[in-house]
Write a structure and sequence with these properties.
- The structure is a single chain.
- By secondary structure, this protein is an alpha+beta fold.
- It has one domain.
- It is 28% helix and 25% strand.
- The protein is built from five helices and eleven strands, in the order ββαβββαβααβββββα.
- The strands form three sheets. Strands 6-11-7-10-9-8 form a six-stranded mixed beta sheet, sandwiched between helices. A three-stranded antiparallel beta sheet has the order 1-2-5.
- A hairpin with a 2-residue loop joins strand 9 and strand 10.
- Helix 2 packs across helix 3 and helix 3 packs across helix 4.
- Bound molecules: zinc ion.
- The site of zinc ion has 9 residues, from helix 2.
Length: 240
Amino acid sequence: MPVSQGRCALCRAVRPLCNSHIVPEFCYRPMYDSKGRARIISTSGKGPKYVQKGLREKLLCPECEQVINVYESYFKAFWYDKPALPRTVRRREFVVGSIDYAKFKLFHLSVLWRAGASSRVYPDVSLGSHSSRIRQMLLCGDPGPQHHYPFGGLLTVDHEGTVQLEAVTPPYSFKYKRFSVYAWRYAGCEWHYFVSRRRSLRIPFQALLPRGDLVLPVIPFTQGLVFEAFADDRRRSTRH
Ligand SMILES: [Zn+2]
């Protein structure tokens, strides 16, 4: 429901703005408790922190919400409703096939772009000139080739192999060669988004392929860059 006027981050027109999600609401759904509250994964040792809904910011006009909704609807139907992932995985990698390359990639780019466009929710995501390039890709429905803003995922499981659909973390940024990388956990995976002007650089694992295959290496929930980064923060904060 639009509540105030402002400049829409996607079409750049001054219009009524919606309270837009950064990570879609349906990614938080598996973690709602019986009172409809979502639990934010916390490694601070102070127990879980509750919010009523996923994090939002006044970002998009209603028309642009619909542009993004096309990508979100595809991802929800494919990833959650189908579903694309089994409940448990007991092997070293899992391959998801029959992906619509354009919609799947544009969904992921839309999450990254929204985080970059938000000033309040994720101030650490700074896409610079890439923000306007990704914005154009979203508006035009153009996912670009495989090596243009490549991304991949690590499937996170617990000690019994249960896929950890409920984890939603803030993005963690770092440098890899000439890439700015944003690592982020939601929808059962630790997603890694590689941002660079150069399109031919290799990334350390397989990106989504235009033919619709995505190879997901399987990692324990207690490993991965995001977990390690937050654990480091926790260690630092307990020392001081
Ligand atoms: Zn708009």
